[in-house]
Structure to design on (374 residues):
């Protein structure tokens, strides 16, 4: 059999398995319903461009208990032109979450990649005024509707020569690393009910560079907490990769370390890349599902883990297959990072995640975290 024919058959076969899975899903298993069994929530990041179209629209109705704005609430998307703010898309995401009866995660108040381009050459004084005004405008506009704000995103850089373990960026330069806690203080002053999260990637798997990032983030959070920064939650993005090692023991210990600081944990951007995974589509899906299961079982075994949010709903609109900067598979095939394939059919990963959610070993429990006020 030629390679091409085998691949076509594998794709077709994958679709058959998917159709069976969809039937099962339509029998009533909603992923958020499954998560609620252990006091948690399950949901997805969405943007207006695709969330109102099928199959995403129906999948959200069936499975979403929490919604994150993938891009619509980012500063650059709100205020592309100096002084002109457009909240249309952000409002649409907030309204969609409400229509679905889902909690809303705000993403993200400060991030070097979403700082408007017009500010990249600003003075520190001008930048500080603009960042403060943006944060206050967003927290005021969505006050009462936000479950958790990602206040600050991705400031760790465990590999930089910089001893602090923090990233050098427009934000460190113009706002200042030492002033990151102020962002949380401003957010808490403006919205006393939303949980406040620090959100970052590359801390979930068992590679030396992940270890360096874990060490750096714990050091940063410890310092913040010593100075009474109102940070409630560590957001672990969990952009996983089948080609990287995973250790349930190590991840669970990291969860313990975060909880010992009084933090809750949210999994904020889950997906699994398979850029380097060889084999047929079903081989790839099996490897991906196995990692989903190991990761999810670890999360469902820890009382501090409150919610799981997928980054996108189907493989079709996943950022991994969309972005120009996204790594491609050597065979030119798109990756299969989400729970649903290009047609919105559930894959092996869906069954793995559903099983973990249903069989959660330990319920979510706020005890011993700093978030009692929420
Ligand atoms: O919508 C425009 C389109 O009109 C234009 O033709 C096209 C040309 O490049 O760009 C489109 O916008 C892109 C947008 O995604 C929508 O696809 C932007 O260029 C692109 O920069 C943007 O990328 C987003 C990225 O964050 C940067 O903001 C991704 O969608 C989004 O998934 C990604 O999400 C991040 C989280 O916020 C933080 N953690 C990592 C995660 C993945 O990178």
């Amino acid at each position: 059999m030629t390679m091409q024919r085998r691949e076509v058959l594998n794709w077709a076969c994958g679709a058959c398995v998917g159709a069976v899975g969809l039937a099962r899903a339509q029998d009533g298993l909603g992923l958020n319903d499954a998560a609620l069994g252990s006091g948690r929530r399950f949901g997805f990041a969405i943007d207006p461009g695709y969330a109102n179209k099928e199959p995403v629209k129906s999948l959200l109705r069936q499975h979403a208990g929490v919604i994150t704005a993938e891009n619509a609430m980012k500063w650059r998307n709100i205020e592309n032109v100096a002084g002109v703010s457009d909240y249309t898309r952000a409002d649409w995401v907030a309204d969609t979450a409400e229509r679905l009866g889902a909690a809303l995660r705000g993403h993200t108040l400060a991030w070097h990649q979403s700082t408007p381009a017009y500010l990249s050459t600003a003075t520190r004084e001008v930048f500080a005024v603009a960042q403060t005004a943006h944060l206050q405008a967003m927290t005021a506009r969505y006050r009462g509707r936000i479950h958790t704000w990602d206040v600050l995103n991705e400031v760790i850089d465990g590999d930089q020569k910089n001893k602090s373990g923090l990233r050098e960026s427009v934000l460190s330069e113009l706002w200042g690393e030492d002033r990151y806690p102020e962002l949380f203080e401003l957010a808490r002053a403006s919205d006393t009910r939303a949980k406040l999260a620090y959100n970052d990637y590359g801390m979930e798997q068992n590679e030396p560079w992940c270890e360096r990032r874990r060490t750096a983030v714990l050091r940063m959070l410890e310092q913040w907490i010593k100075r009474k920064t109102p940070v409630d939650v560590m957001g672990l993005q969990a952009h996983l990769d089948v080609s990287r090692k995973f250790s349930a023991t190590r991840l669970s210990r990291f969860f313990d370390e975060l909880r010992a600081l009084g933090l809750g944990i949210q999994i904020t951007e889950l997906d699994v890349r398979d850029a380097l995974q060889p084999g047929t589509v079903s081989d790839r899906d099996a490897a991906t599902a196995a990692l989903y299961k190991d990761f999810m079982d670890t999360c469902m075994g820890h009382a501090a883990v409150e919610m799981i949010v997928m980054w996108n709903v189907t493989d079709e609109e996943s950022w991994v297959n969309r972005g120009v900067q996204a790594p491609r598979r050597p065979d030119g095939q798109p990756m299969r990072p989400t729970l649903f394939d290009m047609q919105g059919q559930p894959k092996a990963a869906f069954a793995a995640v559903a099983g973990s959610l249903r069989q959660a070993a330990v319920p979510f429990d706020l005890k011993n975290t700093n978030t009692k006020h929420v």
Q: What stands out?
A: The chain has one domain: 3-321+333-363.
